[in-house]
Design a protein that fits this description.
This is histidine kinase. Its EC number is 2.7.13.3. One of its GO terms (cellular component) is plasma membrane. The protein has 410 residues and is an alpha+beta fold. It folds into 3 domains: 141 residues, no CATH class; 74 residues, Helix Hairpins (Orthogonal Bundle); 148 residues, Histidine kinase-like ATPase, C-terminal domain (Heat Shock Protein 90), CATH 3.30.565. The protein has a 5-stranded mixed beta sheet with strand order 2-4-5-7-6. The two termini are 63 Å apart. The relative contact order is 0.06.
Length: 410
């Protein structure tokens, strides 16, 4: 198991070495003090004994007394004698030289035990450190792989230790990054599809405008009626392109979640009448009748500007699908649970298959106008859902279509 000698590990080893030197000094100091105290006590006892013997037997030579004191053969006999009188029983079996040997033995063993303890702790520490460094190395490798968009983290060996918390957080981060990456890929694909669809939708009117403008330029003597017709068609095509770009910008703002919706109380009838007024020209062009049957008290909470945009797109869709001279009915109801708005036309209706794709961007069913770009309903649905509402469609061929907007009360 290879140990990586990083800066932190070197600091730990230096701290351990300092602790070993300090503890070694402390042990030797304490043992030395104990030996010094014992030696002093022993020497004082020998001095007192030597003085007593010399006082009692002044005729005996000092050398003979020292020789007797250094002899160990009579230790047991002396110990027995002293024990009977309770005098210095522990000192009767050893000479001065033997005591010095015992003191040295204590010092050596104290240092040896200290060294063994530190060696054992050091071995266990390095085994533990090697395992920890291996786990950290695995997490480091995983972070490198994560940076390369590889979102796989093994959680089978998730032991209950300090690194388990880090591993769990990395797992949460992995799941989050994986979801964000998938979402980003989907948004990128949606953006690419949107750009393709916009290019396709703008290509036809741009071509028409170019052809009409060339005809006007190449035929300065064109009759007034034809010229007015060409100019009106150019205006219509440019207006359509302008609406498409504006609608796409609004949808992009909603997709980017940068729109701050104001939550205000709106009167349903007032909002509907405002939308009808904005669509007055379209209504008159097809000689349509819009009937409104909504209570004055019906209300709900939403952003006026964006809700007006959504409602206008749905009503405009109803007008486009109504036959010339037909009618569109807008009704509303309110109860303690929700407020609902119904927009019904009496056109050709749509099939079940078309209803499933109705709110997809740039989808055009079989009954829509040729110049429709298929973004109004998708934008309306996005706005309604961001306002916390729901939108439903009820339709069948030759029976018309009804859009239902439902806003729950909090």
């Amino acid at each position: 198991m290879k140990i990586i000698w990083n800066r932190e590990l070197k600091k730990i080893v230096l701290a351990a070495a300092a602790a070993f030197l300090f503890s070694s000094f402390l042990v030797n100091f304490l043992v030395g003090k104990y030996v010094a105290d014992a030696r002093t006590e022993y020497n004082e006892m020998l001095a007192a004994l030597f003085g007593s013997v010399m006082q009692a037997y002044p005729d005996v030579k000092e050398e003979e007394v020292i020789e007797v004191l250094n002899e160990t053969g009579n230790g047991n006999r002396g110990a027995d004698i002293l024990a009977r009188y309770g005098v210095y029983e522990d000192y009767g079996a050893s000479s001065f030289a033997e005591k010095e040997g015992q003191f040295l033995f204590v010092t050596v063993w104290a240092n040896g035990i200290l060294i063994l303890v530190y060696l054992l702790v050091g071995v266990l520490f390095f085994l533990y450190l090697g395992k920890r460094q291996q786990e950290i190395a695995h997490l480091t490798e995983y972070m490198i792989a994560l940076n390369r968009d590889r979102y796989e983290l093994e959680m089978e060996n998730n032991e209950d230790d300090e690194l388990s918390g880090l591993r769990n957080e990395l797992y949460k981060l992995t799941v989050l990054l994986k979801e964000q990456t998938q979402e980003a890929l989907e948004q990128r694909q949606a953006l690419a599809d949107t750009m393709v669809n916009i290019s396709h939708q703008l290509k036809t009117p741009l071509t028409s405008v170019t052809v009409l403008a060339d005809n006007l330029s190449d035929n300065p003597d064109m009759d007034r009626e034809t010229r007015q017709h060409f100019l009106a068609e150019i205006t219509r095509q440019i207006t359509g392109m302008s609406w498409l770009i504006t609608a796409m910008l609004k949808r992009a703002r909603l997709d980017a979640d940068v729109v701050e919706l104001e939550n205000t109380r709106l009167g349903v009838k007032e909002l509907v009448e405002e939308v009808i007024e904005r669509l007055e020209l379209a209504t008159e062009w097809k000689n349509l009748t819009i009937s409104v049957n909504i209570s004055e008290d019906a209300q709900f909470m939403a952003d006026r500007k964006w809700m007006s945009e959504a409602l206008m797109n749905i009503v405009k869709n109803a007008l486009e699908h109504s036959p010339v001279g037909g009618r569109v009915e807008i009704t509303g109801e309110e109860n303690e649970i929700y407020t609902q708005i119904f927009i019904r036309d009496y056109g050709k209706g749509i099939t079940e298959e078309e209803r499933k794709k109705l709110f997809q961007r740039f989808y055009n069913g079989s009954s829509v106008r040729e110049d429709s770009v298929g973004i109004g309903l998708a934008l309306a649905k996005e706005i309604v859902e961001k306002e916390g509402g729901s939108i439903f469609v009820d339709s069948s061929p030759n029976r018309g279509t009804t859009f239902t907007l439902r806003f729950m009360k909090s």
